[in-house]
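Project outcomes to date are best conveyed with an example. Our students and postdoctoral researchers have been running inverse folding experiments weekly, and each run begins with a structure described purely in tokens. The record below, which covers 610 residues, was selected by the lab manager from last quarter's runs and is presented without edits.
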């Protein structure tokens, strides 16, 4: 095979042709027999290794922490972090099969980093910074596609026409009936030389309220006939430029010369911010449960659009969380009598409570009732709530943690009794219930009921090492593979990995256990990570790496779901490393290694190895 260096490998793709030539002239080749040690933990690193052929195991203690195949590099951290750091981590690199590596001397890397800031920025970055840089680059590339969005991708308000002879009162009535903010005024037949004008709600206000025009005045002489119009296939950015240039909030949209709708500024911006405002508007205007169905279904399209245009997963999760809660709140208020809303608190739990829910998984919700309050139609309301959410695409919870289950719809005092049981007589089910309730967030009704229940929970916790050891143990329940990537290169394939079990759940539950131990009120995993760093429980650098790894793993999970999920398809958490790009595969490998390190921390902190 060719021994030419592949400059498509990041970060070497940042080098100029002249810099690439300098690097090529400094390259050396290393040949290593199977089972030979390439770099020992006690040995100083004086070059960067880039695998040309073969397979290298990165060992930490007796375990394979990572595997490096063709086009992978090691060990940048030791090269620029010093021998002490490498020795402290106890890492060594061993040829798992006959291996050939390019050797890049430290000196040429240092010179190129000095002369090329983009290359140098990557070389000297730590793990978390590299994740952020690579994610930003991907985001910038994908966001470029957003500038190509067409007007037809936006919501167009159906045109509302009135004749020029219609009165201002008629125009206002037409706007109200059609929930429109403007009307188009026909002055004669356009086919015979007539024209079309526009009259907006603002015009009506100025004409009637400020100018004192009689409401019976005809709209014809008052409309503006110099319409700003664009074709349905024009770029949205052209519409934005037109609105900005002329200081207007709407343009008329035509198709084959005929008016097909009105594009309003808010709808244009909704596309540029990925339809969120349209969905929110649908929820606000809902007058019956069935009105919420399309808004709920549109969230999946929203997620696909946001993800496809490079928006980061935490922002997607924040937006989707708010929209989901808006739908849940509206649905509950539509189904429940007002006195039930006033005397209860609808809660969401699990990933929905933590604000980390993306594509729809099973429902996790409950209802806290004010002590002494009774509602004769409670069962019908809660059953209807669960059934309607199923109809909207939110599957029922396999563990039956839903408002339709009386165990999760009960008075505050009964919740306190349950919390007491979960803490003082913990079994596997009790620990799960406690964990999921600890993540709860209020959605509708009186939030003080949840605040009191959580206050009781945190107040009952004691410095009971046995309790916290048992509570934290599930963080280690699933294996985080260390030899995953060996199979990829040795057998040219890899088994799918359950990314939730291998990476996401250990972080979520490990952080949850630390937060509960410290009686913290935060529910979101990333917020808990930084709060724990503020308390000194986690080193801030490690907290940053953990937060970035959690975000990246969540991104991979979403990507796998978006790519594979269609209507009627069962959602899973499987990712396949052979289908990843080089950058994603490298980061996935680094993240799994970090998760193993975090699990070791959890095991030590909660004495899980004793």
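After processing, the design step wrote out the following sequence:
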């Amino acid at each position: 095979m060719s021994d030419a260096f592949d400059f498509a490998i990041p970060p070497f793709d940042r080098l100029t042709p002249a810099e690439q030539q300098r690097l090529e002239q400094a390259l050396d080749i290393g040949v290593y027999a199977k089972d030979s040690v390439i770099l020992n933990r006690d040995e100083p690193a004086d070059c960067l290794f880039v695998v040309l052929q073969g397979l290298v195991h990165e060992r930490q203690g007796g375990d394979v922490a990572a595997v490096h195949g063709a086009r992978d590099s090691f060990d940048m951290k030791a090269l620029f972090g010093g021998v002490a750091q490498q020795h402290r981590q106890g890492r060594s690199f061993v040829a798992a099969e006959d291996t050939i590596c390019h050797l890049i001397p430290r000196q040429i890397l240092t010179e190129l980093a000095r002369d090329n800031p983009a290359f140098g920025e990557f070389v000297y970055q730590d793990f978390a910074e590299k994740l952020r840089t690579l994610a930003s680059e991907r985001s910038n590339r994908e966001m470029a596609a957003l500038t190509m969005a067409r007007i037809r991708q936006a919501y167009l308000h159906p045109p509302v026409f009135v004749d020029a002879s219609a009165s201002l009162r008629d125009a206002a009535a037409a706007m109200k009936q059609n929930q429109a903010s403007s009307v188009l005024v026909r002055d004669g037949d356009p086919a015979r030389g007539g024209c079309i004008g526009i009259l907006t709600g603002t015009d009506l206000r100025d004409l009637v309220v400020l100018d004192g025009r009689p409401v019976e005045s005809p709209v014809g002489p008052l409309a503006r006939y110099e319409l700003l119009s664009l074709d349905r296939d024009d770029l949205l950015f052209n519409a934005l430029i037109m609105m900005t240039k002329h200081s207007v909030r709407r343009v008329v949209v035509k198709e084959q010369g005929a008016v097909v709708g009105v594009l309003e500024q808010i709808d244009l911006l909704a596309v540029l911010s990925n339809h969120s405002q349209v969905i929110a508007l649908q929820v606000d205007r809902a007058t019956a449960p069935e009105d919420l169905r399309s808004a709920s279904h549109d969230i999946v399209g929203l997620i696909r659009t946001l993800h496809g245009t490079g928006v980061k997963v935490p922002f997607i999760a924040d937006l989707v969380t708010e929209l989901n809660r808006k739908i849940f709140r509206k649905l509950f208020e539509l189904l429940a009598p007002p006195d039930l809303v006033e005397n209860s608190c609808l809660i969401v739990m699990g990933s929905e409570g933590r604000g980390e829910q993306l594509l729809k998984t099973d429902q996790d919700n409950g209802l806290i009732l004010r002590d002494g309050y009774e509602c004769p139609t409670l069962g019908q309301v809660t059953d209807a709530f669960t059934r309607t959410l199923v109809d909207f695409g939110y599957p029922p919870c396999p563990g039956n943690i839903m408002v339709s289950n009386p165990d999760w719809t009960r008075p505050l005092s009964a919740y306190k009794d349950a919390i007491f049981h979960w803490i003082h007589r913990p079994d596997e089910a009790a620990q799960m219930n406690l964990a999921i309730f600890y993540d709860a967030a209020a959605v509708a009704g009186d939030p003080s009921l949840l605040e009191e229940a959580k206050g009781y929970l945190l107040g009952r916790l004691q410095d009971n090492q046995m309790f916290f050891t048992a509570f934290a143990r599930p963080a280690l329940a699933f294996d985080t593979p260390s030899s995953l990537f060996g199979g990829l290169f040795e057998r040219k394939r890899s088994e799918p990995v359950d990314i939730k079990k291998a990476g996401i759940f250990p972080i979520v539950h490990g952080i949850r256990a630390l937060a509960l131990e410290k009686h913290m009120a935060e529910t979101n995993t990333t917020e808990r990570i930084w709060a724990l760093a503020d308390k000194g429980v986690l080193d801030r650098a490690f907290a940053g790496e953990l937060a970035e790894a959690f975000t990246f793993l969540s991104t991979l999970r979403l990507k796998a779901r978006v790519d594979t999920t269609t209507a009627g398809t069962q959602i899973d958490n499987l990712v396949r490393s052979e289908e990843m790009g080089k950058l994603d595969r490298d980061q996935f490998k680094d993240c799994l290694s970090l998760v193993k390190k975090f699990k070791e921390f959890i095991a030590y902190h909660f004495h899980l190895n004793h």
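The chain has four domains: 12-124, 151-272, 276-460, 473-605. The two ends are 51 Å apart (CA to CA). The training component of this project remains on track.
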